């Protein structure tokens, strides 16, 4: 049987890693796939030949990606350019030409996946995106196939390594956010413009994809709530640790009676949870299914070789299934098209969670009673309340509160009322809290 | 398209769970598979109708399993009887009749898998066994498909929940083995005859399967070294903890230049490792691939619903692929048949690992020098050596040693010489140690 021909778009970090792994492990991969897999045509604007081993195996390297997707000899296109344009046009052209597509482009899938999958379904080709979420961890496959028997209850994931590295540094070395970010940039774990990572946008792209696979809803990136880590105080990381919690930047997708919660934000989790101990640039995703219970998947969320591992796993899947009836392939969003659900994605005000709160209040009798009175009126139960020592000369003391679960709209209302008190100075710091117990 | 018909053998714990999940989540499962899936024929010697919901959905329940595998309307047979006979005869008959098979039977696959897969390949049907290893965790799928791009370097797994429950109780509550076992039995986590679990035979069945998938070698259960936990002293659990280690009953499969290590035994691991903190009946498998790096998979390793989750995931896979060309399905042992490797499985003497050692020696000058001298002559480096306080009136003191990595044959030799010293009383306790760092 003739080899399968790959058209590769992009020879950056992941593209280079893909060439390296495909050539280095060619014999293992062929033994598994049943056919040889070769890159016949690649396109890149710039690349460093010294840093990519196996480049000499590629028949033709040019600079025009459209030449690759229009090349009649290419069976599968791997899109590793990133961004929206021309990635979207290239992917749609590849599909139009009857080619399968493998991509690592979480932003493209999150925003344009619905259209891309519809085009692929109509044409009878596959678009695979394991590499778009959590690097080398086969999380898409686990969710879409391994847990196919379950009604998924919730997902909670550390799915951005940059943010996790920063939070680990803030805790381990008790550093403020800006210093930890600078270290991440120096080590190459954060871009010069780190906005997508630290503001949670990258995590929100990935969570959107996980949520659709879990709950069988169309991709709705614009409905995913995003709150970054740039406003986190080292102080809160410290107080949380004293109370027995770690702060992680979690992506949470949860099914409730009213609809689906889709939210990315800093979250306190009990330090005993395995996921609370996932540090540095590693990723981890917790999935709770109604039959299997809680399952955790952990590994490298980024990097040339780990991401290449996921890209090539998708290629092997496609190669193995190449003669299968398109109607019987694994559906893109796990659920057969036409079977997607219209369950609504909830606004952040409608979610239910617990909270860590910190505020500055006058160190006077009656103040705590005032604050507790507001919580009581809003129907919010307190799990703990602590008063910290004031700094020398301060008239105000830090008050820390842990609440039980309550709807965010009520918490917003309580916070507004507390901030309005004369005895309270400044804003109330609020960090959401999840037990992730079951 | 007509529904897919399942023939179910066994209505015990997992069989009952399978019926329950298949009926309860029928709509989600159908939405994912693209076809309805129904159990048309089941056979069991005895079952409790009160404890299994959805039983009324099964068209015919009898007591003859051969009637099920010979039933012309059945497409897929699910074997949940366990054991070797008649499970083996039933599976082979189902294959002969052109039916696909899904099983949870780790013992059967470990011992007879080579023949079973050959028969299935010749007939063009699939035998799937996700439920045979680590319960609901989709580990077989991860290894065989998700990590297909990697050269697997090693696997380390907590793959028997009974043993892990006992070790957790020994540490958390400082109990001796016999008490912890009794508690496990009282809670239903261990059988009346717990031999398969505590002596590591069950874990060895599962490790055999994982090793074959990872390294592309035929299943060779008889070459897997097994050492149980029944001889573990509460003392060693305690000393290990003082030194910063946990003791887990690990299954380890490792590729070396000389061949494949396949071994199940108590193992010290640094307490900071995520896997060291997997407690109770949960399972976890660490897999290191050369591209992806270390990945961890965690979840419920046993139980009616978690195991049913894995059984049904396999069924959905088969349903999705039902029209695929048999030559293009995912190969049973991950590697295409005819592409299996003849890399040898090493004897336990040939493995390399580090050790925790405990012995009793006379509390006299010169004794430590004697012992250290033997290690030096055998080329064994010591990482740590500690002398503990003797119990009142004892002439001998406990000595604890941590060594660096060395070949087991040399350690055996060193131990023989140390045990022969006049100053040493009794046997040397030896527990292997792994850093699982990379």
Automatic annotation (TrEMBL), chains A, B:
Q: Which GO terms describe its molecular function?
A: homoserine dehydrogenase activity; NADP binding
Keywords from the UniProt entry: Amino-acid biosynthesis, Methionine biosynthesis, NADP, Oxidoreductase, Threonine biosynthesis
The Enzyme Commission number assigned here is 1.1.1.3
One GO-annotated biological process of the protein:
threonine biosynthetic process
Query: Which residues are the active-site ones?
Result: 206 (proton donor)
- Where is each ACT domain found? 356-432
- Binding sites annotated in the UniProt record for NADPH: 106
What the record says about family reads:
Belongs to the homoserine dehydrogenase family.
**Pathway involvement of the protein, from the record:** Amino-acid biosynthesis; L-methionine biosynthesis via de novo pathway; L-homoserine from L-aspartate: step 3/3; Amino-acid biosynthesis; L-threonine biosynthesis; L-threonine from L-aspartate: step 3/5
Q: Which residues bind L-homoserine?
A: 191
Q: Which Pfam families match?
A: ACT, Homoserine_dh, NAD_binding_3
Does Mitochondrion appear among the keywords?
Answer: no
Q: Which residues bind NADP(+)?
A: 9-16
Entry-linked SUPFAM superfamilies: ACT-like, Glyceraldehyde-3-phosphate dehydrogenase-like, C-terminal domain, NAD(P)-binding Rossmann-fold domains
- This protein's record includes keyword Acetylation: no
List, alphabetically, the NCBIfam families matched. PRK06349.1 (NF004976)
Quote the protein name from its UniProt record: Homoserine dehydrogenase
Q: Which organism is it from?
A: Thiospirillum jenense
Q: Which domain of life is it from?
A: Bacteria
Q: Which reaction does it catalyse?
A: L-homoserine + NAD(+) = L-aspartate 4-semialdehyde + NADH + H(+)
Question: Taxonomic lineage of this organism?
Answer: Bacteria, Pseudomonadati, Pseudomonadota, Gammaproteobacteria, Chromatiales
